[in-house]
Specification:
The protein is an alpha/beta fold. The protein has one domain: Alpha-Beta Barrel (TIM Barrel), CATH 3.20.20. It is built from 13 helices and 8 strands. β3, α4 and β4 form a beta-alpha-beta unit. The longest helix is centred in the last third of the chain and has 15 residues. The chain binds 3-hydroxy-3-methylglutaryl-coenzyme A and magnesium ion (MG). 3-hydroxy-3-methylglutaryl-coenzyme A binds next to α4, α5 and β5.
Length: 304
């Protein structure tokens, strides 16, 4: 039943961005850097460290340049940032970012609330981002959000998301991360969405960005694994949400993902004990309890 599972998986860590963007109280820049360093120490090699969006829209990410300046760069680690437009790319390039991620939603209403544009206008705004970034030697990733459901419109037709993803890849994105932004997805739905996308893309061109709002994220990961997906976005401790998506609490916790992958014999290159420690750092940084299951239960076996 599980013979075809991949041997290794790449984890794309989003806690410093998707996690912290949602915090009401301003997190100190040095605390953000401490979290990123703890994630690197755990073996994470792809980390979305900040976003270069409008500070009016997401004040929590206003210190992106400062975060990048204070970070010690480690070989083998890709430092990414979310950017909405050419201004964001400029700021990311100045900060020495390796990879940028553009983002839009499969539903018009969420897209409008998040970036104040229609989907068509947003794709247009990426023209001076994607190919100039590639020309500068940066990698570009794309997000398609609200694919499993929209907090404003309800059900979303996956074919609309596929059409957007096709345009992102055509424009130069090496990977498209499919977002269950509000964590409503269930496994059969995930299978249907992925089968549609895999008719058009190779598995390595797809990542899954799952929020665990209703406890279904890991079940959806398993469907992804069975269909050959090998990149999963996650956030340590389950920190996260989207400020323009009500109810988008809790990304899939990195510890829960890595615990499950390790148990299935799938390599990640991540040290679970150190990852758990990074979760403790995240908790201290935000000053409240985090929802991740492994974060709460610990990583040692009862016998150990
Ligand atoms: P706007 O107000 O329509 O556009 O915002 P604007 O161009 O008029 O810009 C407004 C102000 O922001 C101006 O400043 C610009 O200069 C400035 P002012 O003249 O008023 O002083 N500005 C910028 N400043 C710094 N960096 C920039 C930048 N761009 C403009 N890059 C805009 C349009 C897209 C900028 C805005 O809506 C925005 O920044 N939105 C970002 C929202 C966001 O970050 N949401 C959370 C991330 S998405 C998410 O969480 C989902 C995801 O995790 C996947 C999933 O879960 O599915 C990725
Ligand atoms: Mg998200």
């Amino acid at each position: 039943m599980f013979e075809s599972l991949p041997k290794s998986v790449s984890v794309y860590e989003v806690s410093p961005r998707d996690g912290l963007q949602n915090e009401a109280a301003q997190v100190a820049t040095h605390a953000k850097v401490r979290l990123i360093e703890a994630l690197v120490a755990a073996g994470l090699e792809r980390i979305e460290v900040t976003s270069f969006v409008s500070p009016r829209w997401v004040p929590q990410m206003a210190d992106g340049t400062e975060v990048c300046r204070m970070l010690e760069r480690h070989e083998g680690v890709t430092y990414s940032a979310l950017v909405p437009n050419a201004r964001g790319l400029e700021r990311a390039a100045e900060a020495g970012i390796d990879e940028v991620a553009v983002f839009l939603s499969a539903s018009e209403t969420h897209n409008r609330k998040n970036v104040n544009k229609t989907i068509a206008q947003t794709l247009k705004a990426f023209e001076p981002v994607i190919s100039p970034a590639v020309a500068r030697g940066m990698k570009v990733r794309g997000y398609v959000s609200t694919l499993w459901g929209c907090p404003y419109e309800g059900e979303v037709d996956p074919a609309r998301g596929l059409a957007i993803a096709e345009q992102l890849v055509e424009a130069g994105c090496y990977q498209v991360s499919l977002g269950d932004t509000i964590g409503v997805g269930t496994p059969v739905q995930t299978g249907r969405i992925l089968e549609l996308f895999l008719r058009r893309f190779r598995p390595e061109q797809i990542a899954l960005h799952l929020h665990d709002t209703r406890g279904t994220a890991l079940a959806n990961v398993l469907v992804g694994l069975q269909l050959g997906v090998t990149t999963f976005d996650a956030s340590v401790g389950g920190l996260g949400g989207c400020p323009y998506a009500p109810g988008a609490a809790g990304n899939l916790a990195t510890e829960d993902l890595v615990y499950a992958l390790q148990g299935m014999g799938i390599e990640t290159g991540i040290d679970l004990e150190r990852l758990w420690q990074a979760g403790q750092v995240a908790e201290a940084v935000v000053g409240r309890e985090l929802p991740g299951k492994v974060h709460q239960a610990g990583v040692r076996s009862l016998a150990g």
